[in-house]
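Please describe our next protein:
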Amino acid sequence: MADTTIKVLPKINGFALRRPNLLPVLGFIALLLSVSLFFVWSRVQVTSLEYEMSQLESTLRGLRQETSNLRLEAASLRSPERIERVARQELRLRLPSADQVITVD
């Protein structure tokens, strides 16, 4: 059988020595570790979100530039001079003669 007797720790200068209670120390270390890990995780998240925001802002600038270019192109395509030139050169249209014009009263 195993010896289950508890040995009495000696007294030094009137103080009894006893085993330290490690539970509060381990709890404090676990709390400190948890807070540290949360801080690191939050900084990684912030950095990741800043990088994503930068990419989105760059994409937005590109899309705004493309929108501006498309509006300019649409305005040039709607110009009456261009429409007349395309009608005459590419479609081979011409102005109607006087007998082809019908006026409606």
